[in-house]
Structure to design on (412 residues):
């Protein structure tokens, strides 16, 4: 049995195995920390920053998913400061691309939209950037709409770590970052893609969707993909 | 006691938010006891009056006319409410923002028209370079997102505002 360590989460003492992340420990303690890029069974990358927590004695906020729990740590997962920053992160995600919920295939089934409602985001204070983005409809069964992508990289990891195909990657930097298929080829031209659809099911927004669905019709099953990844013994 | 004054306004939107407003059903009677609707698509007034207590504005700011009217509304209203996703985020109205206005109009009125191929110019306001949410033009006091916002959320907000309180919309609304 792995070595056990004790950490305090929102004042409550929690015992976890050494090597667990703060997010694992918090989940084990029944805490519901908001997160978009995290998926149990896949490696943690700290892409969305929504799971930031306060750590006693540390001046800055740290992402719970990529910060290992250490013996004696005292973590705060709910505070006004955290809510303020989590809201700002969501607002920046909305401002960065064209997330027009009302005409989205995943409207009412979207994790980004649901999280905004949960954290009380009623408007975006940052200027919208309205980038001109494309959609890749070359795959016979699926669509990639860059307008709705938040670069969480769940699709990248599920394809590489669970399906073993590693079709997806992210190219360029900053706001110019784009999800790419193979070496920036049309999805339909990919020889590596097995058309398993795990990326679509793992995607938290309407960025990856099945063809043939109308507005509000694309409900996904990320929990199933996650369960499969855990059974296969992937990272936390 | 004199009644409060409510104004509604329809900028670049589909009027779905006004439909949702009418969907208040019996709550409309409660509102009508406390306030008169003095301007908007539902009444005849031609000019936005002075001294409005609550202005509910639907739609994005898309044309020079929208911009001017919104600035008048701001000057003449105590509380300005952005009603619905177009007013709050730009929504569908802002989906044209990646296309230059000239190209957009020519695509629709010249290439897309079977006859009378010309971009209309008489009696129609010029389009702004981009359509955007109200708060990029004026100060907005309350946001009610939703496409359209739920009647319950509108009713709650209006009744609270008429009582002089600022409603907390956080748990009552969502985008889309």
């Amino acid at each position: 049995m792995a070595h056990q360590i004790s950490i305090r989460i929102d004042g409550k003492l929690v015992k976890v195995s050494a090597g667990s992340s703060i997010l694992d420990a918090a989940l084990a303690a029944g805490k519901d920390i908001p997160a978009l890029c995290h998926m149990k069974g896949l490696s943690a990358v700290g892409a969305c920053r929504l799971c930031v927590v306060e750590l006693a004695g540390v001046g800055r906020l740290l992402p719970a998913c990529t910060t290992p729990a250490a013996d004696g740590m005292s973590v705060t997962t709910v505070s006004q400061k955290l809510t303020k920053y989590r809201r700002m992160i969501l607002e920046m995600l909305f401002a960065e691309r064209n997330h027009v919920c009302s005409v989205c295939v995943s409207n009412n089934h979207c994790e980004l939209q649901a999280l905004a409602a949960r954290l009380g985001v009623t408007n975006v204070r940052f200027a919208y950037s309205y980038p001109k983005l494309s959609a890749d409809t070359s795959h016979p069964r699926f669509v990639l709409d860059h307008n709705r992508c938040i670069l969480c990289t769940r699709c990248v990891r599920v394809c590489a770590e669970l399906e073993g195909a590693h079709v997806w990657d992210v190219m360029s930097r900053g706001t110019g970052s784009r999800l790419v298929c193979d070496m920036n080829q049309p999805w339909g031209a990919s020889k590596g893609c097995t058309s398993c659809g795990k990326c679509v099911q793992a995607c938290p927004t309407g960025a990856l969707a099945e063809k043939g669905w109308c507005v509000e019709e694309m409900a996904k099953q990320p929990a199933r993909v996650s369960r499969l990844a855990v059974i296969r013994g992937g990272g936390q | 006691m004199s009644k409060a004054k409510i104004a509604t306004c329809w900028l670049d939107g589909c009027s779905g938010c006004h439909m949702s407003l009418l969907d208040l059903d019996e709550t409309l009677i409660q509102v009508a006891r406390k306030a008169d609707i003095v301007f908007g698509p539902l009444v005849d007034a031609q000019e936005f009056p002075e001294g409005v207590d609550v202005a509910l504005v639907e739609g994005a700011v898309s044309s020079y006319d929208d911009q001017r009217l919104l600035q008048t509304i701001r000057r003449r209203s105590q509380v300005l409410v952005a009603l619905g996703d177009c007013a709050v985020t730009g929504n569908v109205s802002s989906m044209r923002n990646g296309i230059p206005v000239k190209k957009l109009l020519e695509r629709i009125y010249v290439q897309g028209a079977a006859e009378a191929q010309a971009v209309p110019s008489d009696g129609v306001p010029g389009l702004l370079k981009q359509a955007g949410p109200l708060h990029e033009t004026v100060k907005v006091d309350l946001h009610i997102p939703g496409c359209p916002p739920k009647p319950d959320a509108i009713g709650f907000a209006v009744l609270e505002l008429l009582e002089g309180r600022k409603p907390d919309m956080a748990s009552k609304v969502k985008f889309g």
Q: What stands out?
A: Chain B has six helices and seven strands. Chain B has one domain: 4-95+127-162. Residues 158 and 170 of chain B are 15 Å apart (CA to CA).
